[in-house]
Structure formats: C-alpha cells, structure tokens
Design brief:
α3 runs parallel beside α4, α5 packs across α7 and α12 crosses α13. The longest helix is centred in the middle third of the chain and has 24 residues. A hairpin with a 2-residue loop joins β22 and β23. This protein has 18 helices and 32 strands. About 30% of the residues lie in helices and about 25% in strands. It has four domains: about 150 residues, VC0802-like (2-Layer Sandwich), CATH 3.30.2130.30; about 190 residues, Vaccinia Virus protein VP39 (Rossmann fold, 3-Layer(aba) Sandwich), CATH 3.40.50; about 100 residues, 2-Layer Sandwich (Transcription Regulator spoIIAA), CATH 3.30.750.80; about 200 residues, Rossmann fold. The chain has about 750 residues and is an alpha/beta fold.
Length: about 750
C-alpha cells in the first residue's frame, strides 16, 4: 500500500526520522507529511507507535477537481473493499475552487456516488454520521485534483486517550512529542536523566516524555481506530501488535530508573496533571508539585532537560508582563539549574533574549496558528548574555507617559487635599491610545488597571496591539508601577443576548451591566465565580475613613466605581441619623460610606451572592454592625414592585443605581433603564420619607430623563457636581439626579 502519514507543517523531518525507525523503510517527505510504501502491518505499526503523526491515510483515488469527474470516479470504485452495506460514514472535505465552492457540497457528491454504487447492487447505502462513524474518508482539493483517502486513524492521533481534561491553552500531544525529539530527550531518557517542566499545566510535556522513556506506544490506550470496521482489517495481526506493545511497556518500566517532574502555580492544574498521568500509566515515574516558575529549584542533583511552554503574550497588552516573566525565568535558571539543558517554546526571539542566556539552536515551530521558536540552551554562567542594554521607550510610549505626567501634575494638589488613593490618571486623552488608566494606591504598593476600549474594525489589530503595549510601557514610566502590578482588561460591545467573559476566563454573571464610557454598548460587571483556590488576592483601598476591598484581576470591574466617589462623599455627609436604602448595591461601598457617616440603619439589596459576600467583607472590614446594616438577596425589580404596593419601611435617603440593561435569567423581567426609569423612580419614591432624598444615577451614555413624566417630584440635575477632577474629561461617564417629594 502507498500510505500518506500527515503531520503539522514544519514537523516533516522529525516525522520522517520517526517513521524510518518504526518501519525500517524508505520514506518520501513532502509538505505536511510523508509517503511510504508499506504492508498492512507497517501501517498498523505507524498508527500505533508514531508520536508525531496527525493521521495515517490510505489513498483510494484521485479525480479532476470538478463535480462530474469527482462523481464519475467515485461511483466506479469497488466500495465493497472499504465499506460494509449500511455502514456509518463521515467524509472530511477540505479545499474549494470555482467548481466546488463549499466543502459540504463536495462531501455530499462523494456520498451520493457511494450511495448510487450500493443502490445499483441492491445493497444498503451508507449513512452519514459525523461523530463516531465506522468509516471516515478524507478528501482534499490541491492543484486541480481531488484526492480521496481512507482515514486509518479515525480521530486525530494526538488524542492518546489519557487527557480527558486540559488547561486553557493546551499543547497538542504530537507537537509536544516532536519538541521532545528536537530537544534530545530520548538520549537523556536512555541515561536515566531527569526532565522538568516548571510551567507544566495539565502535564503534556512530562507525560509524553514519560511515555517515551517507558517505551509506551502512544496509540495503546486509544479505544477506536478508523480501521476497526474496515473490511480489510486484520484483527489477529492488530491484536498481536497490541500484545507486543504491552510487553515493551512492561520491559520499559523495568529498565527506566529516572524521574520526571512538573510544577505549576495552579493547584487545580496539578491535580489535573496527576489524573492525566495516572490514565497514561506513568504515575510511578512522574512527580507534580505546586510552585511558582520564578522560584523553583532543580528537583534533584543530577542535571537533565528542562522543557517548558511559557505564555505567548497573545492577548493585547500582555507582552510587557510576559517579557518580565522571561527575565525572571532566566535569572532563576542561571541561579538554580547550572549544567542543565533547557528547551523553551517562545512566541518570538525577543522573549528568548530576555532570558539572558545564549541560545545555541533555534527551530521554527507552528503551534496551531501561532508561529513560535523552540530555543535550546546550555544553562551555564559561561553562556550568560552581557548586561542588558537599557532600551529607550518608543516615541509613542514617551508621548503617552508625558500626557499621564501632565494629568498627574494637574491632579496632585486635589489628590493630596482630598486624600484620594484610587483615581483615573488617563482616559483616552490621546485618541490613538484609547484606554483608561486607573491607579490604586494600597498598602501592598501601587497598582494600575488599564482598560482598553474596543477598537473600531477599521483599525489594524496589530497596530492596536502595539499601541496598547506602548501605553502599558507609559504607565510604568509615568506612574512608577512595575509590570507585574499592571492589570489589563478589554471592554467590548455586547451583541444581542451574548454574555461577557471575565478578565481571565469563564463567564460574568448575567444581568448587572455597566456601560463603557466611550461607547453606546452595555457591558457586564457581574462576577466570574472562581474556585477559592483560583481567586486573586483582594487588596484594600482607603476612601476617606473607609477601607474598601478591590479585586483588580478577576473581574471586569474592580468592586469600586471610581466615578461615583463624589456621590459616596455626598451620601456620607447626608446620612447622619438617617435610614438609608441602597438598591442594586453591588459591593455596597455607598452603604459603607453612609454607615460611617452615621446612618442609624441601612438596607442594601442585590441579587448576586458574590456581591453580597463582598459587601459583608466590606462591612466587617469597617467594623459595621450587621444587625443595623442589613444585606438582602433579592431581585431589585421584584423588591420595588412589592414594597411600593405596601411599604414595610420607609427611608430618609435612597441611592438608585440600576444597570443600563439586564436580561438575567434570575430576574423575572428584562430591564431597560431608558424605558423603565420612570417606573423605578416612582416605586422608589414611594419608599422615601417626606423630606427625604433619592439620588438616581445611570451610566447609559445617551440616557434622557423623562422630566415631564416625573414632574410630580422636585428634580435637580446633579451630574456636573457628581464628578471629581479625574473625570472632568469624560463628563458622560454617568448622569445623576436628586429627587424629592414636592411640598404643597
């Protein structure tokens, strides 16, 4: 048989060497794979033992790349050699041209020809089955021809069967194996030397290396193959190869005396890695521990191979933080891994240079759509690069830094006078650098939050990325914030019923939205419910006499709306001896200020358990009596409706800050603040004591207050007075009104 073994582009030489070892036969490398003349046994061996291959394909026929030729050639094949009557069938079709413009159309033409062949012989035709077909065909258009092959693999061969769970950006098993070959791991393993991955995630490098060291066939644990139901399948031969592979595993386990190590700073990922290792059968030779990559030590005295896949800085603005990480990794390797070899998969050569160690070899590698470099190092002080030359900031970074410094000069006297410790230092002052920069001064140091405003589609993403990285550099220059204390967030326009992801991963809670000050869209501010072990450390910020908990990493908003600072200050002044109601209370910072201001009792209402837990921590941090300052988990719309009909209690002071829009499944109705504000205000006013004050705020940029419908109340536009100097540039960040009952 003439067999094609496919692989990722760039891995052809590695695959060719591997298949030569497996088959002891000549191979012909070509783009994205190799050709080999092989008997059925050799094809089985390649499927079972190749660690680098993506698929093993048995070519069936070629036709000119047009509909008529494809059908005629397919209908002339003897399909009894490859399909049982009525078998389930999948056809993977790739490529298109002027004759076949859709891959689904091309696949259906092949299916029609196969069905017609069976019908002509009074045989039951095959049925298309996408998920788990008995037979899978692969068809591809290239250079005016369509090649059709039987897929011996069934599913892609990187699916070994041991990794049922994986991290956020997993490395494919066959790519990991190829990089281990490139790094010389088989030679290390033959000498029982150790391997260590200090950023191992779900353990792919470590487990693949262990399978090599123990001589475990990568396909041994796969339950399904593309040839299982193929009429030409030789079950006796296949099972003899499986028995041989099992025996080699037993012998490999006896011969290998080394140890492999992995670590990661995420304890949950370490549990996942241990589970994966157990399923792969390598748990006895691997050791996974929770540790920070910048603080790890060599796990044993014997020097071996360190291999790892650090972050790529793919997200906008991440390059600065990733570059700093590479510097710290390099410093730690030079200090604690002298004499080891290292292999690092980096997004670019600059990241490698940041490690400060001379790389003796580099290989270009494609990890999916990302072009990367595999950098090989001898870790030694002799290979330490010279002192890094200080690189001057770019003209753009310096320009933004100068603007931030100018803003700081304008704000400094106000910041000192008002003792403000969290404020906006920059808000798209330069249009081409469209982001907001908030500075948080805490007991743990200075932190910055850079919120990127979504760029128009007309802006080149690469240019937007470059500008955001310049802005991050400028923040460090102007505000003295180290790269590891700069948190980057991206706000995008909501479409339809879509929900938003957190700053890291996962979904925000539905319903509570906060509008980006630079656009008309609404944005989720709800929390991503993390496991306790994954949540970032909370920080404390002082505002007046209050200490407020903020979280700069896990959520789009931090727990403290900086633009509401004057409103909180006003409520603090007015609250003495009064009862206070906070609707849609979020983290209840407004309530904390009312309580510190002397409110006799308060009630804070929200439907989010996360917000209310956060609120309780804020209360306890400020030693507030939870008996007098109550928290209520309730849909505010439902609460207002029921209480306005028959108020159980009234309040002297009410703060109403609804989301712009909410369609949360936990709410009984959809909230649209422009449409519904009159009803909400009227219901809230029924809970307000005579002589009391309601403060209403909204972040909907194009909001229009219906003063005519609310003419029964005294209304005062408080918007301008509710902005501090750090938000003077963006006076539409929110709109605010004070409302009172009219006195006859």
């Amino acid at each position: 048989m003439n067999i094609f073994v496919s692989c990722a582009i760039g891995l052809e030489p590695i695959l060719a060497d591997e298949v030569r070892q497996i088959a002891d036969s000549d191979v012909r490398p070509t783009k994205a794979g190799i050709w080999i003349e092989a008997e059925l046994e050799t094809a089985y061996r390649i499927a079972l033992w190749s660690r680098v291959a993506s698929r093993v394909l048995l070519p069936l026929f070629e036709a000119e790349a047009n509909v008529e030729s494809l059908y005629n050639t397919a209908v002339e094949q003897d399909w009894s050699q490859h399909l049982r009557p009525g078998a389930s069938l999948a056809i993977d079709f790739s490529g298109k041209n002027k004759h076949i413009r859709h891959t689904r159309f091309g696949a259906l033409k092949i299916k029609d020809a196969i069905a017609d062949w069976h019908n002509a012989r009074d045989l039951k035709p095959p049925q298309l089955e996408k998920e788990e077909p008995e037979i899978r065909l692969s068809a591809r258009i290239s250079q005016g021809q369509i090649s059709v092959a039987l897929d011996f693999s069934g599913s892609a061969m990187h699916r070994r069967g041991y990794r049922t769970r994986q991290g956020e950006a997993p490395l494919r098993e066959n790519l990991a194996a190829a990089l281990l070959y490139r790094s010389g791991w088989p030679e290390f393993a033959s000498e029982n030397k150790p391997l260590f991955d200090p950023m191992c995630g779900s353990g792919t490098f470590v487990i693949e290396a262990a399978m090599m060291a123990l001589d475990i066939a990568p396909g041994l644990r796969r339950e399904h193959w593309g040839f299982d139901r193929w009429p030409g399948h030789d079950g006796v031969l296949w099972h003899s190869l499986l028995r041989e592979a099992t025996q080699r595993w037993k012998e490999g386990r006896e011969h290998f005396k080394g140890k492999l190590f992995g670590s990661d700073d995420n304890a949950y990922m370490m549990k996942m890695a241990r589970d994966n290792a157990s399923r792969a059968g390598v748990q006895d030779v691997v050791d996974f521990q929770t540790a920070d990559v910048t603080q790890v030590f060599a796990p044993i005295e014997t020097a071996g191979l360190l291999i790892t896949n650090p972050p790529y800085g793919e997200r906008l603005g991440d390059e600065a933080a990733v570059a700093l990480l590479y510097e710290k990794i390099g410093e730690n390797l030079l200090e604690h891994f002298d004499g080891w070899k290292a292999a690092v998969l980096a997004a670019n050569a600059e990241f490698g240079r940041r490690m400060g160690i001379h790389s003796y070899k580099q290989y270009r590698v494609d990890n999916g759509s990302l072009a990367c470099l595999l950098l090989l190092f001898d870790i030694s002080q002799d290979n330490k690069l010279g002192r890094k030359r200080e690189v001057a900031p770019s003209e753009g970074a310096q320009m933004v830094a100068n603007r931030i410094k100018k803003n700081m000069a304008r704000l400094n006297s106000w910041l000192s006078r008002e003792e403000v410790s969290a404020f906006r230092a920059y808000d798209a002052d330069l249009p081409e650098y469209s982001a907001a920069v908030d500075l948080y001064q805490t007991e743990s140091g200075r932190y910055a939050v850079v919120q990127e405003y979504a760029a128009p589609k007309t802006v080149d993403p690469a240019k937007a990325r470059h500008r955001l990285n310049e802005l991050v550099t400028a923040v460090g220059l102007a505000l003295g914030v180290s790269a590891d204390k700069i948190h980057l967030k991206s706000r995008e326009r909501q479409r339809g019923s879509s929900q938003y992801q957190s700053n890291n991963q996962g979904h925000y809670g539905k319903g509570n939205t906060r509008q980006d000050p630079q656009s008309q869209g609404q944005y989720s501010q709800g929390p991503y419910e993390k496991n306790a072990s994954e949540a970032s450390e909370a920080l404390l910020v002082r505002e007046g006499q209050a200490l407020v908990e903020v979280n700069l990493e896990d959520y789009l908003d931090t727990g403290l709306f900086l633009d509401h600072r004057p409103i909180r200050r006003e409520i603090n002044k007015l609250a003495s001896g009064k009862s206070f109601l906070n609707l849609f209370c979020y983290t209840s910072v407004v309530t904390v200020q009312a309580a510190i201001g002397g409110a006799k009792r308060t009630l804070s209402v929200d439907m989010s358990n996360t917000y209310l837990d956060w609120s309780e921590r804020n209360f306890r941090q400020n030693h507030l009596d939870l008996a007098r300052h109550r928290l209520l988990r309730e849909d505010c719309l439902k609460f207002l409706h029921l209480q306005s009909l028959a108020p159980e209690e009234k309040f002297d002071l009410i703060f109403l800050d609804p989301p712009s829009f909410s369609n949360s499944k936990r709410m009984e109705e959809v909230l649209d603040i422009q449409r519904d504000h009159v009803r909400l205000i009227e219901q809230s006013m029924r809970l307000l004591e005579e002589g009391g004050l309601l403060i209403f705020s909204t972040n909907l940029r194009n909001f229009k207050m219906d003063t005519e419908a609310l003419s029964g109340f005294e209304t005062e536009d408080y918007s301008e007075a509710s902005l501090d100097p750090d938000f003077q540039r963006n006076q539409r960040i929110h709109q605010c009104w004070k409302l009172r009952h009219r006195i006859d």
